[in-house]
Design brief:
The chain is of the alpha/beta class. It has 8 helices and 8 strands; from the N terminus they run ααβαβαββαβααββαβ.
């Protein structure tokens, strides 16, 4: 792996967590793929094949420049263009909190892919709680927007997400919780700033 990709994995520790779950050569659909950084990282580290879905003109152009296969589409309109079970994994990286219709999109992820992977900022992180106690909405590396310009519409905690999965019969297969680049194993809903989950449809 090149130094560029090593650095990218350090800057986005959720990338490394996602890569660790993917077998070599897996097929991947990356929803809200941005400039294609995750797909490039997974292609370099795990040899994945796949596509990104992105709505932004600038990010689509960046994907093309970075030699990443991309389809321009709005996630809120669903994944009807993709056949069932057409990918090994469907990934929603740092985009879950910006989706307006979360439950239908998560269900579609598990129709199109054998497994789903999501990463999101944990609103239950202790620094966020301190900000709320002080009367302010949190602003941090993981939540970099002010309340008036944020794209985030559905912030959640680890407990919230796990309750959601139980309600909609999604079986959590694995979880990684981090603060910065370090793994958090004790009191994750309090001490973890970022969470990554791997899941599939429950039997």
């Amino acid at each position: 792996m090149s130094n560029d990709y090593s650095q990218l994995g350090q800057l986005r520790p959720d990338f490394a967590a996602i890569a660790a779950w993917l077998p070599q050569g897996a097929s991947v659909l990356d929803l809200g793929c941005g400039d294609g950084s995750l797909l490039r990282y997974l292609r370099e580290t795990r040899g994945v094949r796949g596509y990104g879905v992105e709505i932004s003109d600038a990010d689509v152009a960046a994907c093309i420049a970075n030699n990443v296969n991309v389809i321009q589409n709005d996630l809120e309109s669903g994944l009807a263009d993709f056949e069932s079970n057409s990918f090994d994994f469907v990934i929603l990286s740092q985009t879950l909190q910006a989706t307006r219709h979360t439950e239908p999109l998560m269900q579609e992820m598990l129709r199109v892919g054998r497994e789903g992977i999501v990463s999101f900022p944990n609103f239950g992180y202790w620094k966020n709680r301190v900000n709320i106690l002080r009367g302010n909405m949190p602003v941090s590396k993981d939540l970099p927007y002010q309340w008036y310009d944020t794209p985030n519409v559905h912030l959640c905690t680890l407990h919230d997400f796990e309750t959601f999965c139980r309600k909609y019969r999604m079986l959590i297969l694995d979880r990684r919780v981090m603060a910065g680049g370090s793994a958090v194993n004790m009191l994750p809903n309090l001490l973890g700033s970022t969470a990554v989950y791997r899941f599939r449809r429950a039997a």
